[in-house]
């Protein structure tokens, strides 16, 4: 069901819209955790390290999918808020054509350079072949990843956060089951983890695209919409391209950091793979809620109700904090248990490095949520230069400080770069929202 986010009390509107998004990301992250858990428990520490190592490279592809999703979602939300339904349909059709060209190009580049990327991050010899196998299968499923993400982004733009939740719940649950079947029963190892993702993403992709077509058929238009528009493609590109560059640079930064971590051996790689899964579970949940705030902002910008953005910022903080505080408590109290949960016979170094990451990084999650809410508003308002500036500052600080600190503090120096980058990025994001006049009260 399509929902208008431009009317109603902002806190109630955001809670109603963001709650399904929150449950969606829980299912997604439970799958991600199960992915690593099954690899670590049923295959071994080396398999966990291989998947964790490949994961940082897959983030490059996810970054581009995110950018395509963001560009279409923000522009679609504006058109929906302005009730320009003919242009809305044209925007969606245009997005699908453009996205198809993007994932074809990425698949070609991925197949050609996957080995070079693994070499660039200093992948240890003992996990190189498994990492490459995982990447090859992952790249083959890029069409499913892109179409699925584009479809769910459009549902969110229409104010519908429940439909993406149902698709994600189905996909994640099925993926966990297939992970176990492929790895435990068929003994396919790392390839089984990758093929399970491939199959489930494919099914979810087809179902979401078909349902989206049915949903669009219920949106009445006076005239037949065009299937392509250069003007709307340009509008989407103005949002998508900076988003892609921003996320891609984050991925490159993560790859640089992964390369630094790889220099400390398989034990630290495995410990990091476990702890970063836990960290990403929270960060991705926060970012998903942030995307909800971006859609809220975009609809209100389209409806020329920008005075609602200030209330949306504080409402978003309340929602994010209600998620962050319990997660922080659980992670800090049960750090060692959670890290060990991912491994069959963990080495002391793997446990120690994973636990130290949690103790150093988790206390600063309140900075993360503040930045994500401010970032959501910047994205929804189309202020991509400001958004990129704040994010690049965070990234550059983390990557450079990780290198410097690791020289004399070891792997704990790498972990210490996270809070510093987050802190500076948070201050900058909030300031940029304020300076752009997005926190003005209604006059």
Distance between the termini: 33 Å
Largest β sheet strand count, sense and barrel closure: none
Share of helix, binned = over 70%
Rounded to the nearest angstrom, the radius of gyration is: 21 Å
| Percentage of residues in DSSP E strands | under 5%
Order of helices and strands: HHHHHHHHHHHHHHH
β-strand number:
0
Shape: globular
Whole-number mean pLDDT: 88
- Please identify the structural class as seen in this structure: mainly alpha
Total of helices: 15
| Uncertain stretches | none
Condensed summary:
This protein has 443 residues and is mainly α. It contains 15 helices and no strands.
How does this structure look, described?
The chain is mainly α and 443 residues long. 84% of the residues lie in helices and 0% in strands. The protein contains 15 helices and no strands. It has helices at 10-43, 45-81, 85-120, 125-140, 142-157, 162-185, 190-216, 230-262, 266-302, 308-333, 335-340, 348-361, 365-380, 384-409, 411-435. The protein is globular.
Helix and strand layout, with pairings?
Elements: H1 10-43, H2 45-81, H3 85-120, H4 125-140, H5 142-157, H6 162-185, H7 190-216, H8 230-262, H9 266-302, H10 308-333, H11 335-340, H12 348-361, H13 365-380, H14 384-409, H15 411-435
Features:
mainly alpha, 15 helices
């Amino acid at each position: 069901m399509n929902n208008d986010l431009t009317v109603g009390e902002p806190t109630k509107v955001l809670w109603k819209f963001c709650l399904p998004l929150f449950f969606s990301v829980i299912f997604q992250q439970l799958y991600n955790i199960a992915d690593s858990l099954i690899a670590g428990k049923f295959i071994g520490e080396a398999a966990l390290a291989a998947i964790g190592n490949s994961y940082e490279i897959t983030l490059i592809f996810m970054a581009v999918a995110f950018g395509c999703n963001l560009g279409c979602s923000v522009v679609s939300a504006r058109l929906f808020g302005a009730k320009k339904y003919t242009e809305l349909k044209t925007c969606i059709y245009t997005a699908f054509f453009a996205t198809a060209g993007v994932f074809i190009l990425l698949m070609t580049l991925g197949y050609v350079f996957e080995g070079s990327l693994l070499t660039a991050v200093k992948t240890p010899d003992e996990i190189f072949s498994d990492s490459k196998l995982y990447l090859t299968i992952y790249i083959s499923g890029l069409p499913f990843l892109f179409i699925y993400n584009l479809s769910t982004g459009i549902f969110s733009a229409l104010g519908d956060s429940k439909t993406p939740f149902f698709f994600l719940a189905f996909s994640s649950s099925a993926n966990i089951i297939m992970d176990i079947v492929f790895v435990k029963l068929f003994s396919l190892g790392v390839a089984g983890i990758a093929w399970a993702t491939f199959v489930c993403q494919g099914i979810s992709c087809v179902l979401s695209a078909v349902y989206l077509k049915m949903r669009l058929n219920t949106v009445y238009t006076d005239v037949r919409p065009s299937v392509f528009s250069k003007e709307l493609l340009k509008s989407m590109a103005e949002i998508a391209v900076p988003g892609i560059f921003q996320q891609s640079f984050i991925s490159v930064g993560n790859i640089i950091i992964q390369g630094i971590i790889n220099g400390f051996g398989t034990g630290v790689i495995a410990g990091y793979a476990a702890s970063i899964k836990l960290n990403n579970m929270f960060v991705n949940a926060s970012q998903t809620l942030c995307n909800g705030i971006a859609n809220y902002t975009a609809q209100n910008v389209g409806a020329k109700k920008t005075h609602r953005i200030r209330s949306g910022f504080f409402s978003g903080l309340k929602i994010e904090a209600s998620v962050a505080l319990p997660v922080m408590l659980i992670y800090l109290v049960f750090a060692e248990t959670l890290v060990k949960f991912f491994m069959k016979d963990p080495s002391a170094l793997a446990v120690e490095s994973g636990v130290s990451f949690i103790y150093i990084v988790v206390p600063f999650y309140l900075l993360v949520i503040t930045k994500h809410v401010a970032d959501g508003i910047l994205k929804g308002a189309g202020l991509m230069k400001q958004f990129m500036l704040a994010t690049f500052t965070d990234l550059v600080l983390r990557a450079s400080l990780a290198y410097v600190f690791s020289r004399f503090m070891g792997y704990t120096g790498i972990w210490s770069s996270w809070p510093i980058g987050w802190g500076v990025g948070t201050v900058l994001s909030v300031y940029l929202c304020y300076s752009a006049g997005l926190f003005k009260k209604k006059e």
